[in-house]
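Folding Problem: From Residues to Backbone Shape
Fields: amino acid sequence; protein C-alpha cells
RECORD BEGINS BELOW THIS LINE
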Amino acid sequence: MLSRLGALLQEAVGAREPPIDLLQAFVEHWKGITHYYIETTDENTPAKKTDIPWRLKQMLDILVYEEQQQAAVGEAGPCLEYLLQHKILETLCTLGKAEYPPGMRQQVFQFFSRVLAQVQHPLLHYLSVHRPVQKLLRLGGTVPGSVTEKEEVQLTTVLCSKIQQDPELLAYILEGKKIVARKKACGEPDALPKDAASHRDKDCSHHGAPARPQRDGEPCGAQALNSPLLAETEELDGGTAESNLITSLLGLCRSKKSRVALKAQENLLLLVSTASPAAATYLAQSSPCCRAIIRHLCQLYRSMPAFLDPTDIAALEGISWRLPSAPSDEASFPGKEALAAFLGWFDYCDHLITEAHMVVADALAKAVAEKLFMETLQPQLLHVSEPSILTSTALLTAMLRQLRSPALLREAVTFLLGTDRQPEAPGDKPCALYAHLIGHCDHLSDEISIATLRLFEELLQKPHEGIIRSLVLRNLEGRPYVARGSPEPESYEDTLDLEEDPYFTDSFLDSGFQPRAKPRPAPATSYDGKTAVTEIVNSFLCLVPEEAKTSAFLEETGYDTYVHDAYGLFQECSSRVAPWGWPRTPIPLDLHEPERPFFEGRFLQVLFDRMSRILDQVGSPISPLLHTF
C-alpha cells in the first residue's frame, strides 16, 4: 500500500506541464487587442481600464523569454519574426495616432521603448521597425506640452543609447525609407532578418495564413483604422520626417517640465558625441541638427526685450544649462526670464561643442558664428542707437564669460578681431567690427566706453593666443619701439636697488648721505621677482604720508595683501600662456633692419589716450581757484 502510494507521488512529481506554444500565445494576445476594436463600442473608456496594457505586457514578456531561450542559437524567434512580418509596430503607431481608446498613445510609446530596450536582437535596421519609430517620434513632437512627454523622452533615451552603441543606426532613424530604397537598388535585403525564411513556412503552415499575413493583425472595421490613416502609414517618409529625432529632442528640450527638458538635453548631447567619424559627418552635413539647435538659440535671443540694462545683464550670473532658470534671490527686472533662458541655451550649445565629435563641434561653432554673431549681433553692435549698442555689448560680454569650448572661442575671436595678424599701421582699414569696438572704447558716451572696455577685459581673460597677439603683440614684434642706433637697455634686475631711488637720496641730502656705487651683481645670483615687487612698493610708500596709510593695526589691509592677490593673478596668467611657447627674453635687435615708424596699435593707442585724460574733470569745477591749484 505504501509502495503504491509512493509510486503515485513520484509519478505526480515527475509529471511535467505540456510545453507552451509561445507563438500561439503571442498571436492570441495580439488578436485580443485587435478584437477590442471590433467588439467595443464605448469610445470613452481609457486605455488603462482595458486589457490592452496587460496584453502588450504579455507580448513583451514573450519576446524577452523567447530571446533568452534562443540565446544559444543567436537567431530571431518565431514571435519576433511575426512582429516584423505582420507590421505590428506600424499598426500600433496608427492606433496611437488615433488616440483610441483615450491614452492609447501613451501605451504605444511605452511598448516601443520597452521592446527596443529589452530585446537585444538588432531591430532598428528593419523597415518595419524604424519607419513606425520615426512616425511615432514625429507624432509626439507635433503636440507641445503633451501628456506623453515622459514616455517620449524615454523612447529618445533608448534610441540615443542604441545609436551610441551602433552609430550606423543614425542614418536609419533620420533618413528612413531613403536607406531602404538605396538598399533595394543595390539588391540588399530590407526588412526581414536573415533567419526569417526558416520560420516563414512554419508560421504559414501553423496558422494557415499566406506568406504576407498582414490582414491577420489588422483591426478590421474599427474607426481608428480607416482608410486615411492606413494610407498615411504607407506613405513615404520625406520633408520634415528626416529630422524627426532631432526635432523631437528639441521639442522636449523646450518642455516646461524641468526633468523632461534636462533628460532631452542629455540625450541630444549623447547623440552628437558619437565617436564614429562617418556618423558625425552625416550628423553635421546631411542632417538639420546644427541648424535646428542654432535656430532655437536665435529665437531665444529675439524673444528678449530690445533694450536691457547692462547692469542687470552683468549681475545675472550662475546660469547653466542644467539650471537655466534665474536665481530667485536676485532682483527681478523686465526680461529676466527670457535672458536666463537665452544664456542657459547658449551655455548648452557651448557644452555641446565641447563634448561633441570634432566634426560636429566645428559645424556647430560655425553655425553660431554665422547665425548669431554675424546675422544677429553684428548689426546691433554697428547700430548708431546708444541703447542698442549698450544691450548688444553687454550680452556679448555675458556670452564670452560663459564661453569654454575652444572651437566656439576661435570663431568668437575671428568675429571680433578679424583674421589679420600683420602689424597695424595708422592708415590701415581693419575689420569693420573691430574698428567700431575700438572706437566705442573712447566713445562720447561713458556708458558705451565702459561696456566696451569690459568686453575687451573679458576677451583678454580667454585662453586664446590670437587675442593678445592681435591686440598687442603683433605691433611689438621686431621691437620697432627701440631705436636701432641706441644701445641695449640694462636688464630690469639691475635697476631695482633702493639706494638709487631719487626719493631716498632726496630725503637724506641734509645729512650728507651719498649713494654708494652700485656693485656689480654676482653672476650666480638669482633674481627674486617677488622681492623686487616688495622693494618697489616700499619705495612708493616712502612718498605716502603717514595719515594716508592704512592703519597697521587692522588685519589684511596692508599692501602685502594686494601684492599677494596680484601675484596670484600673475601666476594664473603665466599658466595660461605657458603652452604658447613665448620666449623668456627679448629677441636681439637686428641692427641692419631698416627702422620703421612705431605704431603701438589701435587698442593700446585708445588705452593710452584714455589714461592721458584720466585726470580730466567730467563736470565744471566748483571753484576756478581750486581747479588751477
DSSP finds 29 helices and no strands in the chain. The chain has a mean pLDDT of 79. The longest helix spans residues 358-381. Residues 397 and 457 are 9 Å apart (CA to CA).
